[in-house]
């Protein structure tokens, strides 16, 4: 099969760090309200709502911060969301 013109599937990376700060494909969202998160997602993702979103959160990330980003993604129409968690560092 001819795969030369096929684009690789796009994915969107969303990181919520332990301080509750958001990074969309490594671009920091300066404010943490849902509208600011949505604006940054739109700027980074464009119109492609079919791409997979990899949502990563630190074990110490505030739960509400994760809920906010899930809400933003849902409002924008993203349906393919994979959630990855980083284990808490062993002492």
UniProtKB/TrEMBL annotation:
Source lineage: Bacteria, Pseudomonadati, Pseudomonadota, Gammaproteobacteria, Lysobacterales
GO biological process, alphabetically ordered: protein transport
Family under the similarity heading: Belongs to the ExbD/TolR family.
Descriptive protein name: Biopolymer transporter ExbD
UniProt keyword annotations, A-Z: Cell membrane, Membrane, Protein transport, Transmembrane, Transmembrane helix, Transport
Recorded GO MF terms: transmembrane transporter activity
Topology versus the membrane: Single-pass membrane protein; Single-pass type II membrane protein
Presence of keyword Nucleotidyltransferase: no
Subcellular localization: Cell membrane
One Pfam family this sequence matches: ExbD
Organism whose genome encodes this protein: Stenotrophomonas nitritireducens
A cellular component annotation (GO) from this entry: plasma membrane
Signal peptide from the UniProt entry: none
């Amino acid at each position: 099969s001819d795969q030369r013109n096929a684009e690789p599937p796009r994915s969107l990376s969303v990181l919520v760090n332990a301080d509750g700060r958001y990074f969309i494909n490594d671009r920091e969202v300066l404010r943490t309200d849902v509208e600011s998160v949505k604006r940054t997602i739109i700027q980074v993702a464009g119109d492609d709502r079919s791409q997979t979103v990899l949502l990563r959160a630190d074990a110490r990330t505030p739960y509400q911060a994760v809920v906010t980003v899930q809400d933003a993604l849902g409002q924008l129409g993203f349906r393919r969301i994979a959630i990855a968690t980083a284990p808490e560092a062993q002492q």
